[in-house]
Every structure is written in C-alpha cells, then in structure tokens.
Amino acid sequence: MRKNNLGKHLFSFYVPDLTSKVSALSVGQELKLSDLTLFHRLFRIVRFNFGDACIFFDRQTNILIELLSSSGKKDFTSIILKKEKNKQLQPSICFWLPFLKRDHFQTALYSLAELGVNQIQPVFVQKGQRNWAGEKEFQRCQKILVSAAEQSKNFAFPQLFEPKTLQECCDSMQIADQHVFFDSEGEKILQVLPRCKNKNLVLFIGPEGDLTDIEKMLLKQNKFIFCSLTPTILRAVQAAAVSVGVFRTFLGQ
C-alpha cells in the first residue's frame, strides 16, 4: 500500500446511495464499487494513483477512503479510513429564491449550497424573470448543488423543493421560524441579527425588479422582518450570497 495523500487537498465525490452501500461496513474494511462515471473521474480526470485518498459522500454519510486497486473500466476497491454522519449546520436556514435569469439563478444555487443553506424553496413572484422548466431544470439544479457540495465539503447539501407561489409559501410557514426579507428600506442588519439567534430561519430576497407592494404587504401580514442588508443596492444574485454568509457566520454553531 502506497503512502496516501492525507496531507494534501482531499477531493470529494458524490456517490448516490452511499449510505446503503457502507451501512454494514466499518473503518478498516474494503469497499468495492462498480461505477463507470466515478471510475472515469477518479482515474482519468483527476488521475488518482493507488494509495491516494479522497472523500465519498451522499446526503447522509461521508467516508474517507484510500484507493487500493481497480479492474476493467468501472470496478475498483478502496479501504475505509474514516466514516461519519453528515452534520446539518445550525440554525436551520430555508432560503426562498425567486426566479432570476437562468445563469443568475444557477449561480445563486451554487452559492447557497456553498454557504450552508439547509433548504431552498424556488418562489414564483410577480416580477420573476422567467418560468420554471420542470423536471429537466430540477435535475440540472440538483447537479449544481452536488457540485457545490463537492467543492465546499458541505456534504449535507440543501434540499431543493418544487416551486411554489409566494402565497403558497406563506400559507405553509412554520410559526416557530423567524422570517427575514431583505429590503433596502428595512431595519439595519445589526439590529435584526440578535432577534434571530437560536431560531430556525427563512430568508427571502426579491427579484431584480423587487416585489410588488401587494407582495410586500403579504410578507408583513405574515410577520416578516424587513432587513436592510447593505448601504448599497445589490443585485439579487449577490444579495443571496451576502445574506446567507452574514447570517450563517454570525449565528452559526
């Protein structure tokens, strides 16, 4: 067995149903996988050698492995060096994301996963910039979240819900949550943060054209705190990243 690369950057790879594959295995035991795509990424793209280490994960579990051997074009064996359950970051953050231009929407998804959001709820609003493309877009979004999880090591990456209207989102809110809408005329963020401590959060930004007055009234009726994020006006895709970064950093445990 060669000296592994534990002192170097560890690549992470999403392996669907990993939890079921390793449920009966312990540290020190061998894991045998047959996966054409994963094999190609490991040995053709990243060009791992036997003895190198990396991380496999799914939404529930992550393991540190060392590659031992391979055969054919998809079969390989590794040994489990470490095994643990994924940690859900606290407090729980559900982010309501309006439909932005496609590239901005995808960038926002990636940032939200990187920064540790627990759930993402796409929201139809009056000034949303496009429609939802159904199952095809849903699967594309899932791939973006997985990619962000591999990069950020946020293995418990966000659960993505099917889109809802703003009214439907408000109707299904949990009373125990603290709800924050980022608005340039809202309270200063340093006044809002202490009121959100130790509470599960719903964070919401408007689209580029902002919410309508009727939509803002709906949020106020549902006890949203209106919060000014920065002294300047941010694009929606930037506001998504900045808002979660601030709340996750200052309220994180």
Q: Can you summarize the main beta sheet?
A: 7 strands, parallel
Ranges where pLDDT stays below 50 over 5 or more residues in a row are none
- Any idea what the shape is? elongated
* CATH architectural type of the largest domain: 3-Layer(aba) Sandwich
The overall pLDDT, averaged over residues, is 93
CATH domain fold name of the largest domain:
Alpha/beta knot
At the fourth level of CATH, the homologous superfamily of the largest domain is SPOUT methyltransferase, trefoil knot domain
Proportion of β residues? 25-35%
Order of helices and strands: EHEHEEEEHEHEEHEHEHEH
Q: Could you name the CATH class of the largest domain? A: Alpha Beta
Note the gap between the termini: 39 Å
Helix content: 25-40%
- Look at the helices and sheets and give the structural class: alpha/beta
Total of domains:
2
Radius of gyration of CA atoms, rounded to a whole number? 21 Å
Q: What's the β-strand tally?
A: 12
| Count of helical regions | 8
Care to give the gist of this entry?
The chain is of the alpha/beta class.
Walkthrough of the structure:
Strands 6, 7, 8, 9, 10, 11 and 12 form a 7-stranded parallel sheet that branches. A 5-stranded mixed sheet has the order 1-3-4-5-2. The longest helix has 18 residues, at 135-152. With 253 residues, the chain is of the alpha/beta class. The protein has 8 helices and 12 strands. It is elongated, with a radius of gyration of 21 Å. It has 2 domains: 12-85, Hypothetical PUA domain-like, domain 1 (Ribosomal Protein L25, Chain P, Beta Barrel), CATH 2.40.240.20; 93-251, 3-Layer(aba) Sandwich (Alpha/beta knot), CATH 3.40.1280. Helix content is 32%, strand content 28%.
